[in-house]
Amino acid sequence: MTNVPQNAYNDLLDNAVTQLIKDKLELLLREEIKNFMEVEQSENARNFRNGYYERTYDTRYGKIDDLRVPRDRNGEFHTQLFEPYQRREGWLEEAVIQMYKGGMSTREVAKFIESMYGAQYSPTTVSNITRTVMEDIEAWQKRPLERRYSVIDLDGLYVKLRRNTVSSEVVYLAMGIDEKGYRQILGFYVGGHESSNGWREVLKDLKQRGATDVLVGAFDGLPGLEEAFREIYPKADVQHCIVHKVRATFPKIRVADKTEFLGDLKLVYTALDGEVARAVFDGFKAKWSKQYPKEVKSWEEQLPTLLTFYKYPQLTWAAIYTTNAIERTNKELRKRLRPMNSLTNIEAAEKIIYLQATDYNEQWYGRAIRGFSDPQTKAVFEKMYKERYGSNE
């Protein structure tokens, strides 16, 4: 028995697969023109088949150099398998978009495509391919939203954008949990520096797109953001992120006191209910206000919005009192953007963030956040919605 070298065997297998694909494509083409000639044409049409022409066509399984495409005498037949001047399946373009989404620069994608497939893709060509998603972005940013959202999380991340010079600019990100308990990214908005006015415009957009009934907004303590949120959603509650507040307090406490101070503070926001939490805070204040008057006063002033979550069902507390979910999302976005060093323009930033955001929404769809699908929780939320906004009809 003769052993076939592995590389020769692989070549034989590749050729066999390519030939099989060629045969199947040509069979489909023959059936297409047969249907066109016998069914789609009018009875009085004076048209006949007119042989074949050969063309090249790249598939994910290999290149076909002599694909036989049937034609008619009047030149009216057009196959639905590919466009007249399309020389490859959409798989390579899709691969380009996926690599770009993964954080590769246009130059890196071009080099990779050339080394793997021999296709000559310049960075400009790669950029043009990824630009096809811009229409999708515009439609996605304008898509209607659900009417009801139990929670809307707001957070920003900074990316380096190149205009005349490279500078960090904010990406405003809004994430919601709808009445079914599904989490989704509602929108992102690129450019400028984070401000309450910027967030006001974001919130206006969310409301204009249909998100009118919101129970609680969760975010950090950016000056003016609470006022902007209450202006757009006056019937909603505000929850300042406890994790952000703890982080802001941590550096201001002496090393010797950190463990005890933060341990006492934790007893406040892990209490059984809001009434107990306020009583625990009174004890915390009495113990620490002399040593750390500014820090204790800051917590006292923000206490009403830090303890908002106690108004809601206990199973949902963890998803309300912290914006960890949106921060994790931002962390992943930074990871995707980091290899690019700096983005050439806002369009480049929007493309990569959109591709990642739609991926997240697909992953999250149909998966209710823990506690939000509980029947009792839903009943409480339904009552809250009706009391604040009326029935959902």
UniProtKB/TrEMBL annotation:
The protein's GO terms of the molecular function aspect are: DNA binding; transposase activity
Against Pfam families, the record matches this protein to: Transposase_mut
Q: Which UniProt keywords apply?
A: DNA recombination, DNA-binding, Transposable element, Transposition
PANTHER family, per this entry? MUTATOR FAMILY TRANSPOSASE (PTHR33217:SF8), TRANSPOSASE FOR INSERTION SEQUENCE ELEMENT IS1081 (PTHR33217)
Domain of life per record: Bacteria
Into which family does the record put it? Answer: Belongs to the transposase mutator family.
Key word DNA-binding present in the record? yes
Function statement: Required for the transposition of the insertion element.
What name does the UniProt record give this protein? Mutator family transposase
Q: Which residues form a coiled coil?
A: none
Record the organism.
Cohnella rhizosphaerae
Cite the InterPro entries for this sequence. Transposase_mutator
The yes or no answer to whether the keyword DNA-binding is present is yes
GO BP terms: DNA transposition
What NCBIfam families does this protein's entry cite?
transpos_IS256 (NF033543)
Query: Where exactly are the transmembrane stretches of this chain?
Result: none
